[in-house]
Write a structure and sequence with these properties.
With 124 residues, the chain is α+β, with helices and mostly antiparallel strands. The protein contains four helices and four strands; from the N terminus they run αββαββαα.
């Protein structure tokens, strides 16, 4: 869905208030633009290590597969599906001089209502 001129003006106004003429941290030029298409950051959940940090080296082989059982038993003992990991809708802010790109959370900016599907997902 294309943004209306009013929606584009609102986004530009909100970003202007946040940026307040700040230059790009990479090149030092104050020439920002933004992309109308959101970038959705999808979080991933990984089990944490109980002790220590890092990865075991060398990698360990996966545990052996459990013995085959009946489909009925497998369905009855299956763990419930975990909830999906969170998603973070972001607006890309790009330096028009060097291309440095910053992703700004649309919920924090208060502009999530511009994209109805995103605004509805915040409520769930």
């Amino acid at each position: 869905m294309a943004l209306t001129p009013e929606q584009s003006a609102r986004i530009s106004e909100v970003l202007g208030q946040k940026l307040q003429g700040r230059p790009c941290p990479v090149c030092g030029v104050s020439a920002w633009g933004w992309g109308a298409d959101l970038v959705i950051l999808q979080a991933a959940r990984y089990p944490s290590r109980p002790h220590g940090f890092g990865v075991t080296w060398p990698p360990q082989p996966p545990p052996p597969a459990p013995p085959p059982t009946s489909l009925l038993y497998s369905l009855a003992t299956a763990a419930p599906e975990p909830p999906p990991p969170p998603q973070y809708p972001t607006l890309p802010l790009m330096c028009n001089n060097c291309g440095n790109t910053v992703l700004l959370n649309v919920y924090t900016l208060g502009i999530d209502d511009i994209w109805p599907t995103i605004a509805l997902s915040k409520m769930t």
